[in-house]
């Protein structure tokens, strides 16, 4: 039973990382309407930005490094959209090409990260924290901060989408880009802002993934990518709230299952859920209007 | 030196086969198979275990171990890949749109890798398979040095044979139906084509090619290592396809020569930079990604563009060497007249 509660605790931490990543991916998918297969590498790169600030230059505190690294990742994402993905998206109407381009981008980013940082496992420099007990659950201080960051970011995204003019424009664009454009919304500006948000969230997710798992390699985002996909599809692709719910379910399911079966297969649980979702309810828990 | 040249020859012809398999799936039918290298891995694994003898006493864990002779194990490896593809296609091809399909397939590819790496009792975990018997090596008394030129030639013959079959398929009404589905599946369905059935067929043919290509890889190297089947490897095959020219079998050979031989394997002979293990390889992989993007931007039709075909229903003899401006309109009209499979 103790093992069960321990895994529930881990489940909340994984769900936090997943929720941040899934919302970042969904935001961008909703606006630009193609899947970014390089998202896992965005995460890893964001994690390494924080690592450089934390360990190599300035030796900043990990949480400050997280903020600066993530914002840098946001700018990087804007740059990638301006220089590579945006031009390709304008030129090719079929999504085939864009999927191949983001797949290629993933290969370039992964190998660039390997070239710079090598294949060694890296660790963040952070204070060793004692465990805290909340009810039957036990967390370290860092894990609690990760969960708090996720909750705060989810609330922030919710406020952004529902209470601001920018969020309203984003939702309009996500529903129908052409209609949004004719209504006077500056779609190019919204796209840029969305890439910035998506990149920043990827940076945060990559860093907290490194904090949660205790290590960081250039490939750590790559394997995590399809867990994000599982969460996004379970929630309904393009739906922000679905992505949050999907992340919570997948996070808990993978970690709790690890208490009962070989933990090496916990990723496969996510895949089984992905397949079952597609067979039983392909539109996801929260279907996006106008899509099937 | 001869050894190196024939290694390059082998990889060129092997990737020719792999690219043809992906070409019928993506180039002809429009199925964006991002799990392609997973199918190659399945083919390699089964070819390996069909040719290895019983696993007792070898320190390895694998299933079957039938000890079959060379062409038989290769063919069965291809068939096993088709069986796997059949299951995957039944689950995924029926109702998933392009981007969902791509997500599921890339996830499948990652899971297959993860599963192979961890499941010791079937896949021998991260060690993979090794000491796979080299075909004909004993019978012909080949040494390590003479085996490589010999097997490169065997692969060349097999790939030409498979190219001949593939060029028949793509020219047949079946291939035309595939292209009709690629260009507009709704139109094809409205004209009475079973879109799912056709996609399934395309998937199965492509997987057979993937299985054979994978089987030849394991027979050439004698071992199976899960890290060689990371999802990024699929991208190399896509690069071969795009550089060569999607929808064109000859282009696949040109692509294999340019990408696989010149870009991937030739730099592997460069000396390591001291203090930076693997740097050349990483850099090389990144260059492949860049080449592909540059190619997609400046010449998306590839080095050897696909030829557009007309049929006799237009009063033009079906030679396939004249350019016509819109391919989809022609196919939409031609398929009900000629396609009856």
- Helix percent of chain A reads over 70%
Order of helices and strands of chain B: HHHHHHHHHHHHHH
> What's the number of domains of chain A?
1
What can be said about the biggest beta sheet of chain A?
Answer: 2 strands, antiparallel
Largest sheet of chain B: none
Mind telling me the C-alpha Rg of chain B?
20 Å
Give the domain tally of chain B.
Answer: 2
Helix content of chain B: 55-70%
By secondary-structure content and strand pairing, the structural class of chain A works out as: mainly alpha
Overall description:
The complex is a heterodimer of chains A (292) and B (341). In chain A, 76% of the residues lie in helices and 3% in strands. In chain A, strand 1 (131-134) and strand 2 (137-140) form a beta hairpin. Chain A has eleven helices and two strands. Chain A is mostly helical. Chain A has a two-stranded antiparallel sheet with strand order 1-2. Chain B folds into two domains: 2-238, no CATH class; 311-341, no CATH class. In chain B, helix 11 crosses helix 13 (279-298). The interface between A and B is large, with 46 and 44 residues.
Question: How are the secondary structure elements laid out?
Answer:
The complex is a heterodimer of chains A (292) and B (341).
Chain A: H1 2-32, H2 39-56, H3 62-91, H4 95-117, E1 131-134, E2 137-140, H5 141-163, H6 165-175, H7 177-182, H8 187-213, H9 220-235, H10 240-260, H11 266-280
Antiparallel strand pairs in A: 1-2
Helix pairs in contact in A: 1-5, 1-8, 1-9, 1-10, 2-3, 2-4, 2-8, 2-9, 3-8, 5-6, 6-8, 9-10, 9-11, 10-11
Chain B: H1 2-28, H2 36-51, H3 70-92, H4 98-118, H5 120-123, H6 137-140, H7 144-171, H8 173-183, H9 185-190, H10 195-221, H11 232-244, H12 249-265, H13 279-298, H14 327-338
């Amino acid at each position: 039973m103790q093992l069960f509660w321990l895994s529930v605790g881990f489940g909340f931490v994984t769900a936090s990382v997943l929720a941040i990543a899934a919302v970042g991916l969904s935001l961008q998918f909703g606006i630009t309407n193609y899947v970014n297969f390089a998202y896992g590498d965005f995460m890893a790169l964001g994690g390494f930005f924080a690592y450089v600030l934390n360990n190599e230059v300035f030796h900043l505190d990990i949480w400050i490094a997280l903020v600066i690294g993530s914002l840098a990742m946001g700018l990087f994402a804007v740059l990638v959209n301006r220089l590579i993905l945006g031009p390709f998206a304008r030129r090719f109407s079929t999504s085939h090409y864009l999927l191949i381009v983001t797949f290629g981008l993933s290969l370039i980013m992964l190998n660039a990260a390997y070239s710079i940082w090598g294949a060694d496992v890296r660790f963040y420099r952070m204070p060793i924290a004692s465990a805290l007990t909340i009810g039957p659950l036990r967390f370290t201080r860092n894990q609690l901060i990760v969960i708090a960051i996720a909750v705060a970011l989810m609330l922030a995204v919710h406020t952004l989408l529902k209470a601001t003019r920018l969020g309203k424009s984003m939702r309009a664009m996500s529903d129908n880009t052409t209609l949004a454009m004719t209504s006077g919304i500056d779609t190019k500006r919204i796209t840029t802002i969305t890439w910035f948000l998506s990149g920043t969230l990827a940076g945060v997710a990559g860093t907290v993934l490194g904090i949660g798992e205790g290590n960081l390699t250039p490939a750590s985002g790559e394997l995590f990518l399809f867990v994000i996909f599982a969460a996004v599809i379970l929630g309904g692709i393009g739906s922000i709230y679905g992505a949050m719910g999907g992340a919570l379910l997948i996070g808990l399911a993978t970690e709790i299952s690890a208490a009962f079966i070989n933990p090496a297969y916990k990723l496969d649980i996510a895949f089984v859920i992905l397949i079952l979702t597609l067979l039983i309810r392909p539109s996801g828990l929260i279907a996006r209007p106008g899509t099937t | 030196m001869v050894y190196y040249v024939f290694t390059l020859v082998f990889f060129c012809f092997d990737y020719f086969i792999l690219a043809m398999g992906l070409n019928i799936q993506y180039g002809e039918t429009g199925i964006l198979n991002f799990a392609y290298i997973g199918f190659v891995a399945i083919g390699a694994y089964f070819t390996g275990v069909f040719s290895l003898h019983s696993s007792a006493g070898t320190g390895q864990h694998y299933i079957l171990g039938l000890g079959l002779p060379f062409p038989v194990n290769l063919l069965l490896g291809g068939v096993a890949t088709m069986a796997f593809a059949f299951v995957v296609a039944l689950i995924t091809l029926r109702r998933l749109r392009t981007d969902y399909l791509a997500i599921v397939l890339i996830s499948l590819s990652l899971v297959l890798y993860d599963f192979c790496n961890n499941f010791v009792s079937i896949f021998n975990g991260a060690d993979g398979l090794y000491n796979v018997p080299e075909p004909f090596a004993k019978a012909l008394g080949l040494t390590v040095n003479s085996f490589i030129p010999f097997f490169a030639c065997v692969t060349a013959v097999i790939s030409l044979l498979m190219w001949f079959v593939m060029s028949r398929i793509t020219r047949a009404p079946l291939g035309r139906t595939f292209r009709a589905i690629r260009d507009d599946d709704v139109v094809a369905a409205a004209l009475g084509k079973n879109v799912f059935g056709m996609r399934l067929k395309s998937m199965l043919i492509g997987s057979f090619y993937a299985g054979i290509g994978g089987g030849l890889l394991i027979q050439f190297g004698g071992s199976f290592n899960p890290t060689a089947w990371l999802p990024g490897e699929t991208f190399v095959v896509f690069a071969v396809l795009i550089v060569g020219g999607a929808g064109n079998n000859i282009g696949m050979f040109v692509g294999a020569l340019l990408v696989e031989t010149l870009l991937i394997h030739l730099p592997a002979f460069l000396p390591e930079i001291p203090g930076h293990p693997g740097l050349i390889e990483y850099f090389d992989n990144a260059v492949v990604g860049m080449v592909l993007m540059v190619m997609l931007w400046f010449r998306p039709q590839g080095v050897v563009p696909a030829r557009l075909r007309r049929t006799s229903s237009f009063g033009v003899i079906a030679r396939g060497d004249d350019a016509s401006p819109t391919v989809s309109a022609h196919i939409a009209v031609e398929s009900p007249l000629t396609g009856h499979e």
